[in-house]
TrEMBL record:
InterPro entries: CDP-OH_P_trans (IPR000462), CDP-OH_PTrfase_TM_dom (IPR043130), CDP_ALCOHOL_P_TRANSF_CS (IPR048254). The chain crosses the membrane at residues 12-28, 40-57, 77-95, 101-120, 132-151, 157-175, 187-205, 211-231. Residues 253-272 are annotated as: Disordered. Residues 262-272 have a biased composition (Basic and acidic residues). This is CDP-diacylglycerol--serine O-phosphatidyltransferase.
Length: 272
């Protein structure tokens, strides 16, 4: 049988995977993030942002023009590389390969990577729900980990936060899909602002570090508030569409009359 040719959307998905491989190479060059040149880390974040834009538009391109059976599988494999393997490598490089936190960092990175793999496998096999994802999407998980590393809290706090992100990835909490043009435009605008702040941070422009930390803080705040907002919206929709319960009216039970009382009434009325 003739093989299916790749569509333009599939090539865009392969671009996402290529960005992930290049970002992984950028992390491997420096070996240890702490005390080294920030340009390698900034380059990896920029490549992840480009991969996220490719991941955002490959589905739209497939729906508009043509999709192939390879599309969903290619998309999952690319997301595993860009949004699963690269943040795990960033975690290891930031914690340090020879520090006392190397083993806990390995455990947190492995938990995050496996959570992304399970989340993507569940997304392919589960029935789609209109307008929402179940569990935190892989790109949002990846950039949440990047934001944690950029804010640079104490290593135990950072590793615990990364473990929480892994738990959110495999959870059943609802997250909105970027289906509308408004939400997609907001995501592209955030990616552009994030890319500019990363470039300013890596180039050493005055105020670039503060702007980079501000961008990371806003992303972390959004990752924490989105599931809370979605849960409240779904609860409000359930209350609005719920059928009001009517109070059941029960019939009065007949009074029980004892045998002696009935016999007495028969005697008084003359019945035998």
């Amino acid at each position: 049988m003739p093989t299916e040719r790749l569509s333009p959307a599939d090539f865009l998905t392969l671009g996402n995977a290529l960005c992930g491989i290049a970002a992984l190479r950028s992390i491997m060059v420096q070996g240890d993030f702490r005390g080294t040149d920030e340009q390698f880390f900034a380059g990896a974040v920029l490549l992840m942002l480009i991969g996220a834009i490719c991941d955002l538009f490959d589905g739209r391109m497939a729906r508009r023009w043509r999709s192939t059976p390879y599309g969903p599988h290619l998309d999952n494999l690319a997301d595993v590389i860009t949004f699963g393997l690269v943040p795990a490598a960033m975690t290891l490089a930031w914690a340090g390969f020879a520090s006392q936190w190397a083993l806990p960092a390995m455990a947190a990175a492995a938990a995050f990577f496996l959570a992304i793999v399970v989340r993507l496998a569940r997304y392919v096999t589960a029935a789609p729900e209109p307008g929402i994802f179940r569990g935190m999407p892989a790109p949002l998980c990846a950039f949440t980990v990047v934001s944690i590393i950029v804010l640079s809290p104490p290593i135990p706090v950072a590793l615990a936060a990364i473990a929480c992100v892994a738990a959110l990835a495999v959870s059943r909490l609802p997250f909105p899909k970027p289906g509308s043009r408004t939400l997609a435009g907001m995501m592209v605008a955030w990616a552009v602002v994030g890319g500019l702040s990363v470039v300013a941070w890596a180039a050493g422009i005055p105020g670039g570090g503060e702007w980079m930390r501000f961008t990371a803080a806003t992303e972390l705040l959004a990752a924490c508030t989105i599931p809370v907002i979605m849960l409240r919206l779904r609860r409000a929709m359930r209350v609005a569409h719920a059928v009001p319960r009517t109070r059941r009216r029960t019939l009065r039970r007949p009074r029980r009359v004892s045998v002696r009382r009935r016999a007495g009434e028969r005697v008084r009325t003359g019945r035998h």
